[in-house]
Write a structure and sequence with these properties.
Structural class of chain B: mainly beta
Helix content of chain B: under 10%
Strand content of chain A: 35-45%
Order of helices and strands of chain B: EEEEEEEEEEE
Low-confidence stretches of chain A: none
Number of strands of chain B: 11
Mean pLDDT of chain B: 96
Distance between the termini of chain B: 40 Å
Radius of gyration of chain B: 13 Å
Strand content of chain B: over 45%
Largest sheet of chain A: 6 strands, mixed
Helix content of chain A: under 10%
Shape of chain B: globular
Number of strands of chain A: 9
Largest interface: A-B, 26 and 22 residues
Number of helices of chain A: 0
Oligomer: heterodimer
Structural class of chain A: mainly beta
Order of helices and strands of chain A: EEEEEEEEE
Radius of gyration of chain A: 13 Å
Mean pLDDT of chain A: 96
Largest sheet of chain B: 7 strands, mixed
Number of helices of chain B: 0
Amino acid sequence: QSALTQPASVSGSPGQSITISCIGTSSDVGSYNLVSWYQQNPDKAPKLMIYEGSKRPSGVSNRFSGSKSGNTASLTISGLQAEDEADYYCCSYAGTNTVVFGGGTKLTVL
Amino acid sequence: EVQLVESGGGLVQPGGSLRLSCAASGFTFSSYAMSWVRQAPGKGLEWVSVIGGDAITTFYADSLKGRFTISRDHSKNTLYLQMNSLRAEDTAVYYCAKTKWTGYYFFDSWGQGTLVTVSS
């Protein structure tokens, strides 16, 4: 399975909204609404932020939202805060009981 | 509170073997699938393997080519990863993760990871 494609970096100012894209194929993102997103701070474990494309686990701010169009999934963070600065990874079901991650996006809050 | 604590990492020579463990607490271990996900230094996440709550159903990333074996012991609430024929490219932090698998495919809690270094 090939990794999903994410931008290496994105940035935004406090209060702004940013969107991180996650480009897959018709074999993964495009075929299933089973994309999850993870936040990872330096030297820390990943944290689940979005699952099944757009659902938020308990405790995750509603500033985080997920969506999908065709073969591209997106994570939007509104009202950007300094604490949102981290690496973000998407992950999609890829069929035959496998999943594939994106390469990760470093979010910088200016 | 879910707690996942990995152990067993370390330095191993190419071609060697290592067994990782993940001690779980704070949830009914046997009711959930469990996975291993790794992250090479400075790189992204890579899914390695998953095992069902039945301790029988297992799936692996194609890239592993049969070198790794996942297992679990419900009497000890512990997940394992047996890694054989290790290569330099297996160097990574290995995370265990509580998993929602069939029909869901996401990882809802993660351990802090254990570092495996394959080098002579």
